[in-house]
Design goal:
- By secondary structure, the protein is an alpha+beta fold.
- The protein has three domains: about 10-70 and about 130-285, BirA Bifunctional Protein, domain 2 (2-Layer Sandwich), CATH 3.30.930; about 300-395, Anticodon-binding domain (Rossmann fold, 3-Layer(aba) Sandwich); about 420-490, 2-Layer Sandwich (Translation Initiation Factor IF3).
- Helices cover about 35% and strands about 30% of the residues.
- The chain contains 14 helices and 27 strands.
- The strands form seven sheets. An eleven-stranded mixed β-sheet has the order 3-9-10-16-13-12-11-24-27-23-22.
- The longest helix has 26 residues, at about 390-415.
- It is globular.
């Protein structure tokens, strides 16, 4: 197997694309801006989805499904929302094709024009809140805690596999509450779920924060986020949780009668993460030899490669390995026994290195005689001989160590790339020479934020939730500032 990929130092963008393709995560599609998620990539997404879904249900949420199509009139009901998504909407105008009578092939039937055009969902707030109007009448119907796993379409002009595609998979939660505080508590609860998942399962350290006005979700009162740092020093927004206030309830007239029988609009949240997390996983951990996957999410945690000559050696190895596989399964470890003799062991080693399988076990006839196996770990590229007796338990401990090591390495990189800047010149130099998060003062105005973005291509990633007050001067205008915010160039 040829595993050559462009190095990160040579071309980080091409390195990323090479890994996605050669590790078998995804492929390009005939539809511009869309991707085909291959089985290995989808298995990774399923592992993410299953863990997140478990956490949503543990916090009282239920799954449902809403239509892909949204009447165009629905979007116009919330002004900020439609303004935020108008440029990304794909619109369905007709419902039938026909043969061109002039011999021009298949054409849209002009007589099959829809009475009202339909938007392919870029997000589902409008269609869901139109439905909630019929579901909510009383405080007894609240809170309403709904999540859906779905696909959405946002007509992106510049796309990149997993990070930004025209169609992508995600989950979107939409909840309704009797009070503002309950909705805010829900927003923060989900933010914590996302941060815990990112750090404990993806081994990816994140910063929890609130977005500035310019970066806020269209139609939200406040947007909270988790921000991660990739190995090229760029930030990646990895999850968002929005406090929507009563904006959508008022737009769709969703009211409830409280315990005193008074009518009021409900309070709302929405929140989501997407297949962008796979891109984050690749860029946060991988190296110039391919993927490095955290064991908790890896589709294959352990691969066993037998090395043999002839059927007799193979039978002896099988006799030892098959019970060992059962030991792994009993411990909840996903294991693959690759005894396909049409491919050489060296080819297999390269393949599983590229795919980021955390642990590889090789065993041959001489190893059997010594009652050992060669155990290699993907993250450090080290290997050692380990006794076969109790091997499954030994590897289980090793998987935990790999998970922790990957996280610590990413955290150390992130911490080394959070830098304070006190002047505009220092800000620009750090962005160009070091990258990462730049902690700097900002005067709090949307105009200054936009000007900084225009001049530096850096945006305010978030105002950290654990921020401390600090008097200072805005790096651009010199006006008074009461706290630092985190800037970065981002995907």
């Amino acid at each position: 197997m040829s595993k050559e990929i462009t190095s990160r130092e040579q071309d980080y963008s091409q390195w990323y694309n090479d890994i996605i393709i050669k590790a078998g995560l995804a492929d390009y599609s005939a539809v511009r801006g869309c991707m085909v998620i291959k089985p290995y990539g989808f298995a990774l997404w399923e592992n993410m989805r299953n863990q997140l879904d478990k956490r949503f249900k543990e916090t009282g949420h239920q799954n449902a499904y809403f239509p892909l199509f949204i009447p165009k009139s629905f979007l116009s009901k919330e002004a900020a929302h439609v303004e935020g998504f108008a440029k990304e909407c794909a619109v369905v105008t007709h419902y039938r094709l026909k043969n061109d009578p002039n011999g021009g092939g298949i054409i849209v039937d002009p007589e099959a024009k829809l009475e009202e055009e339909l938007i392919i969902r870029p997000t589902s707030e409008t269609i869901i809140w139109n439905t909630y109007k019929t579901w909510i009448q009383s405080y007894r119907d609240l809170p309403l805690l709904i999540n859906q796993w779905a696909n959405v379409v946002r007509w992106e002009m510049r796309t990149r596999l997993f990070l930004r595609t025209t169609e992508f998979l995600w989950q979107e939660g939409h909840t309704a509450h009797a009070t503002s505080q309950e909705a805010i508590d829900e927003t923060m609860k989900i933010l914590d779920v996302y941060a815990e998942f990112a750090e404990e399962w993806m081994a990816m350290p994140v910063i929890k924060g609130v977005k500035s006005i310019n970066e806020r979700f269209a139609g939200a009162v406040d947007t909270y986020c988790i921000e991660a740092l990739m190995q090229d020093g760029k930030a990646l927004q990895s999850g968002t949780s929005h406090f929507l206030g009563q904006n959508f309830a008022k737009a769709f007239d969703v009211k409830f009668s409280d315990k005193e029988n008074k009518l009021d609009y409900v309070w709302a949240t929405s929140w989501g993460v997407s297949t962008r997390l796979i891109g984050a996983l690749v860029m946060a951990h991988s190296d110039d030899d391919g993927l490095i996957l955290p064991p908790k999410l890896a589709p294959i945690q352990v691969v066993i490669v037998p090395i043999f000559k002839g059927d007799e050696q193979k039978k002896l190895i099988d006799k030892k390995i098959i019970p060992l596989i059962e030991d792994f399964k009993a411990l909840g470890v996903t294991v693959k026994y690759d005894d396909d003799d049409s491919r050489r062991p060296g080819w297999k080693f390269a393949e599983y290195e590229m795919k980021g399988v955390p642990v590889r076990i090789a065993i041959g006839a001489r190893d059997l005689e010594n009652n050992v196996a060669e155990v290699s770990r993907r993250d450090k590229k080290t290997k050692e001989s380990v006794f076969l007796d109790g091997l499954a338990k030994t590897v289980l401990i090793l998987l935990e160590d790999i998970q922790n090591n990957i996280y610590q390495k990413a955290k150390e990189y992130r911490e080394a790339h959070i830098t304070k800047a006190n002047t505009w010149d220092e800000f620009g130099r750090l962005l160009d020479e070091k990258g990462g998060f730049i902690s700097a003062h900002w005067d709090g105005t949307a105009e200054t934020e936009e000007k900084i973005k225009e001049l530096s291509k850096a945006t305010i990633r978030c105002i950290p939730l654990n921020n401390t007050k600090e008097e200072g001067k805005c790096i651009l205008t010199g006006k008074v500032s009461h706290e630092r915010v985190l800037f970065a160039r981002a995907y």
